[in-house]
Amino acid sequence: MRLTTNLIYDRSLQGILETQKKLVRANDVLVKQTNILKPSDDPSGATKVVRFDEDLSRLEQFSKNTIQLKNQLSTQETALTGINNSLTRAHTLSIQAGNGAFDDTDRRAMAVELDLIKQEIADLMNSKNSQGDYIFAGAKSDKPPFIQDSSGSYIYQGDENVKKVQISETLKVEAGIPGSGFSIFEDTAARNGVTIAGSSTASGSYRLENGDSFDNFHQQNYLKIPPSPAGSNDYSVVFGTGTYQVQDNSGNVLDSGNFTAGTPINFKGLEFSVNGTPTAGQQLDFTLNDPAKRNILNSLDELISRLRDPQGAGDSLNDTIQNTLFSINQSQENVGFARSEIGGRINVIDSVDMSNKDLEINVKSAKAKVSEADFAEAVTELQKQETAYQVSNTTFGRITGLSLFNFL
After folding, report:
1. Contacts 24+ apart (CB under 8 A), 58-67
2. Whole-structure pTM over 0.70, yes or no?
3. 5-32 and 375-400 helices cross at what angle (nearest 10)?
């Protein structure tokens, strides 16, 4: 076979290009630290790497979700702490307001401070997170949850839904307290009361002389209608000649005693004031009201108004103070429960986050076993290919320099 000059050049060039290709691959393996530069290098391994990368991508997103969720819960916990501190101060002022030694000026000064506290609490209830969402508005996070209506009363315009954030393959955690701001601030127990029936044959009024005593009676005896029949919560003060009996709707006598005109009748914390002297057979009918719920802002508003009223002292002020103290205690109980739940949720989030990090390490280890290049082996291969490339270049120069004239 005759070796032409073109054939010699072509074969030499192919050898150089092949060694150059191997050199480039050896360099890429060292730089990228992987033996699988394209799927054809290891089809099975490449498929596994894709799955590993998908797992790592999900774990990375879970980590971001965890950080965002913890920030949201921490923001809520901070707001709740501020609200609790403000309520504690309001509780102290409410007790002081009942001091009989204070005059109208003192009470008005307390009203000013209580009003500022109320505004601070309202501002904290309408707190936002770093994304600009209202944290106590439920799913309606684009609007402030607590606003004042035309009458000046605070109302809740959020909802009870809470957004959930996925922090693992199977776990979604609520980004707020179940029921949101409604359950913490709006769904707050207030003092219960009764309604005196307009059909009563005797006339009178009542006040809560002992709220705790009546709340216990209400809790034990109130029946929801339906399923209970109508009238299940009806009671009557039935008068005799100089006597009275308190009866339930079935006629059972719950209490009795002597009656003197102008003397209040006390029953389970209620104090009834009867007008005139009822005749035998007349009765004062009353019904247990539905369990009361009241926003703490409205309770504070009522006390503030009472303190600003020059005629507000006396039993009416004391009743308002007792009702406000009850509302404050109930609100602080709700806030404390919410803070506890946030703390427990953050503990769960931290635990899941640690599990995710352990899983991430395992996935990276499995991926490395499939595709990661051995550093020493990669360096050796690069040096080998560099030597081969240099030899190819040197050989090409010598071969292309051959000529018959060199032997003449």
Report:
1. 58/169, 59/356, 59/359, 59/360, 59/363, 62/166, 62/167, 62/168, 62/353, 62/356, 63/353, 63/356, 63/357, 65/165, 65/166, 65/167, 66/167, 66/349, 66/352, 66/353, 66/356
2. yes
3. 160
Q: Determine contact, residues 138/161, Cβ cutoff 8 Å.
A: yes
Query: Could you give the CA distance from residue 323 to residue 316 in angstroms, rounded to a whole number?
Result: 11
**207 in Cβ contact with 318 (< 8 Å):** no
CB 234 within 8 A of CB 221: no
> Cis link prior to 310 (omega < 30° from 0)?
no
3-state class (DSSP) for residue 361: helix
Structure tokens at 246: 């308190």
Burial of 199 per CB tally in 10 Å (0-12, 13-18, 19+): exposed
Tens place of pLDDT per residue across the chain (408 aa):
555 556 656 666 666 666 666 555 656 555 556 665 555 556 666 677 678 778 888 999 999 999 989 988 999 999 999 999 999 999 999 998 888 778 888 888 999 999 999 999 999 999 998 888 899 988 888 899 999 998 888 999 988 888 888 998 889 988 888 788 888 888 888 888 999 998 999 999 998 888 889 989 999 999 998 899 999 999 999 999 999 999 999 999 999 999 998 899 999 999 999 998 999 999 999 999 998 888 999 999 999 998 888 766 677 888 888 889 999 999 999 999 999 999 989 999 999 999 999 888 888 777 666 665 545 565 565 566 666 656 566 666 665 555 544 545
**CA 197 to CA 236: how far, in whole Å?**
10
Amino acid at 344: G
DSSP states of 123-144 as a string? HHHT-B-TTS-BTTSTT-TTS-
Q: Which string of DSSP letters, residue by residue, matches 181-239?
A: HIIIIIS-B----EEE-TT-SS-EEEEES-HHHHHHHHHHH---TTTSPTTTTEEEEEE
DSSP string over 238-264: EE-SSEEEEEETT--EEEEEE--TT--
Q: Give the chain's largest Cα–Cα span.
A: 157
Buried/exposed 237-259: b ≥16 CB within 10 Å, e otherwise: bbbeeeebbbbeeeeeeeeeeeb
Question: In terms of C-beta density within 10 A (0-12 exposed, 13-18 middle, 19 or more buried), how is residue 186 classed?
Answer: buried
The three-point CA angle 366-369-370 to 5° equals: 90
CATH class of this structure's domain 54-190+307-358: mainly alpha
